[in-house]
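Run Uroporphyrinogen-III synthase through structure prediction, thanks.
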Amino acid sequence: MSEPDWAPLTGFRVAVTSARRAEELGALLQRRGATVTSAAAITMVPLPDDEQLREHTLSLIEAPPDIVIATTGIGFRGWIAAADGWGLTHDLLTALGKARVVSRGPKATGALRAAGLPEEWSPDSESSRELLHYLVEGGIAGQRIAVQLHGATDEWDPFPEFLDELRAAGADVVPIRVYRWRPAPRNGDFDQLVSGVADGKFDAVSFTSAPAVASMLLRAKEMGIEDRVLAALRGEVHAMCVGPVTARPLVRLGVPTSAPERMRLGALARHITDELPLLCARTVRVAGHVLEIRGTCVLLDGVIKSVSPAGMATLRALAHRPGAVVSRNELLGALPGNGSDTHAVETAVLRLRTALGDKNIVSTVVKRGYRLAVDEERAP
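Sure, done. The structure for Uroporphyrinogen-III synthase is below.
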């Protein structure tokens, strides 16, 4: 048997919003057959130029905290690197060394130990909730707590409830926002990507940080298309997140999300490869064939068939109710553009039949419309 001329993600369109390692994620998805559109949702504030981080660092040196919380390994290492650039590393580590030190997971723990700050405790689950419970149970009223955060923007912080609950328990919280981000520039590639999500031009959009999610929602609101973006993400455009923290802003808005078990870039690429065909592909048995409908193409008996956008729109509308008659006016409404002549439907069906290579797959029902010729023994 010959090898198939398609890959697991052939025919699927994936939007990548990553600011870091976007090329790596895009390459992993393209290798699996996906059509990838990449536009960074956020831009990074260079650490040496981050005056807010420098001011907070000096504040902790002058008044050392009682407790230090490291939430990410890369964020904590970035903080120490920034302090080194300002000539403050020794003073900062001396101040932090006087505090109780806890971490949110193994990567943060490794960064702490590398800096000579052994942790008092870290949850096996990497759960912020479990970390919060540990601290509150021990009593933190009146304690000054430095919380290293990763991926904040000027308008948005990760873990907002976590910080609020520390304050509610009586702690004086000092957020250390390492690697602050700003939304991507206006009227650029990112705006095009957001518009594409609103228009349903993607089968999935990937997020590797919660700030990227926040940036997309903020930009959609600024563009006046927030409702359309949310409707798309609740419908046919699937949100694929690297982990639960990244997904949280979407979950709060009732958007279904999907994430791998391990919060790693490679795991996200594998997860998209495994899940997207299950979520998006529609398979029907028609006229003695097995027809699988994907984002931009179809597989007919395992052979890839290139179909025009009008043909794909027609096929999706017919497959929405397999075997049922769909009127010409309904099909006209599904076609790209805002045409009013049902002759466009006849043309789209003719070209679809030619692309599929079997005119019997789409049946004409005289004076009523068209239907997929679903095999009777397979019909529901």
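The CA atoms of residues 284 and 321 lie 11 Å apart.
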